[in-house]
Amino acid sequence: MMRAAIFDKPGIENLRVIDDVEKPKLTNPDDVLIKVKVAGVNPIDNRVISGSIQTIRPIPHIPGAEITGIVDETGNKINNELKKGDRVVIYNKVFDGKCDMCLSGLDMICRNGGLIGVITNGGFAEYIAVPQRNVFKIPDDMDWDLAASLPVTGLTPFHALNEAQLKVNEFLLVFGASGNTGMIATQLGKKMGARVIAVSKEEEWIRDFGADYVIADYDKIVEQVREITSGKMADVVINSLGVNTWDSSFESVGINGRLVTFGVLTGADVKLNVQALYSKQIKLIGSTGGTRRELKDLIDNHDNLQIKVWKRFDLDNIQQAIEALFLNERSGRIFLDIS
Known about the structure:
25% of the residues lie in helices and 26% in strands. By secondary structure, the chain is of the alpha/beta class. It has 2 domains: 2-142 and 302-337, Medium-chain alcohol dehydrogenases, catalytic domain (Quinone Oxidoreductase, Chain A, domain 1); 154-286, Quinone Oxidoreductase, Chain A, domain 1 (Alpha-Beta Complex), CATH 3.90.180.10. Strands 3, 4, 5, 8, 9, 16 and 17 form a 7-stranded mixed beta sheet that branches. Strand 13 (234-239), helix 7 (246-251) and strand 14 form a beta-alpha-beta unit. The radius of gyration is 20 Å and the shape is globular.
């Protein structure tokens, strides 16, 4: 048996920690049982718990999409690359490896897939069992917080920047730069050689994360982007927030620029000026998650990537951890220390 955070109907008030949840079994010969060490707390988890995502299974359900831990047991068909005691992170996409998307390397949009923690039980528990193909070893010098941030917080902006084909010396404008994905987008943009403009009220520490410019006045974003770029505007804009920042993000895209979006924290329904879209030859790019190859690239090139930690909670305080996602004073990531 094990301890786990679990709910049987939507609502954070129904999320509770139980001491006698059945420990996962290795049902397939290529499964890996992982003792969870640290789990990231992500808006995805809130959507699961609140019921805004409809395809939750199984019920009762254990949420948790960002998971890292230590290999505890392996199936009898696991190759020598994984063994008990290895430090690992879990690629949180469920995929069949057979559809046209998977065969083209886009396993994160498998036609028959989904997310661990959404269509399977997740990592807010002492143990989780997943297929070997979802398990990636991490080096000894990678701290648990960074590792737990890779599957969503890191991989999402990395894939988005790859989709946008960000180039050296281009201007990258990051909305929500001090948020989960924003802090990684800022660092990755700098590592890729871009000139990074961060929209954030956390001017001091976001500069330490690689921002060349910081815009803290949300009423003057377009004006300041124009000034910083000498009228050129941004080559690539990342909007992970949704409707509230849509107009300023769209207006900030320069000629032949790219606007990438992957979040709807403030709403999903936006208005689009089609004339501006085609006259400036703007590319609108929707991006979701990332590939296993990109996760491996992040692990191999994790040097100098940082995570700002705001608060840590233990499993018993899971409700407070979820609620803390939406506190105005939050500045940095929230983690659960599981074991």
